[in-house]
Amino acid sequence: MIYIVIALKPEAQAFVDKFKLKKTFLKNYTLFYNENMKIIVSGVGVKNAMLATQMLINQYDVEEDDIFLNVGVCGSNKEIGSLLEVGVVVYEKKEYVLHSYLETKLTCNDTPSISCEYDGADMESFGFYDAIRHSPAIKNFYIFKVVSDHFKPDSFSKDFVKKIVFLKIGEIFRCIS
Description:
With about 180 residues, the protein is of the alpha/beta class. The chain has helices at about 10-20, 45-60, 125-135, 160-165, 170-175; strands spanning about 1-5, 20-25, 30-35, 35-40, 65-75, 85, 90, 95, 105-110, 120, 140-150. The protein has one domain: Nucleoside phosphorylase domain (Rossmann fold, 3-Layer(aba) Sandwich).
C-alpha cells in the first residue's frame, strides 16, 4: 500500500484525477483511496501533518513493503514545477537526515517562507517525518515537493497547484519503484 500525506486539497486532486480515487472520511480527515493507495488531506502545518500521518499509522496495519509519502508544493529558488526529492529536513535549525544519498534540504517552517536562503521550504515535512520516525515498522518513506513559487506563497492558484503536482506524479512513482 502507498500512503500519502498531502496538505492541500488541490494537491490531492491531482492524484484523484490521475488514479480515479474514491472519497471517504477518516475521523475528521478527507481520505482518497483505491486498492493500492490511500491519501489523507492533513491541512497546513507541522502539527496537522504529524497528526494526519499518525492517524494513518494507527488506523492501518503497516506492512514491511508499504510506502509512506509526503507530497506537496514548496517555495524554492529552483525552476517552478521542478520536483525536489528531499534528503534532509531542517526544522527549528536542526537537521534530520532522511536519505543520506540525497542532497536536497527542505526547511520546514511554522509560517510561510518569504526568504530565498533555502533549497526549498514548506510547512509540513517535519510533521510527517516526526510521525514516521517514531514508527519502526515503516521502512520506506519519502518526501517530494513540487516548486510552486520563489518564496511568494500567495502567487499561485488552486488550479496551478493541481496542474504542477499532476505533471510530477509519474516522476514521483519512478523514484519510489
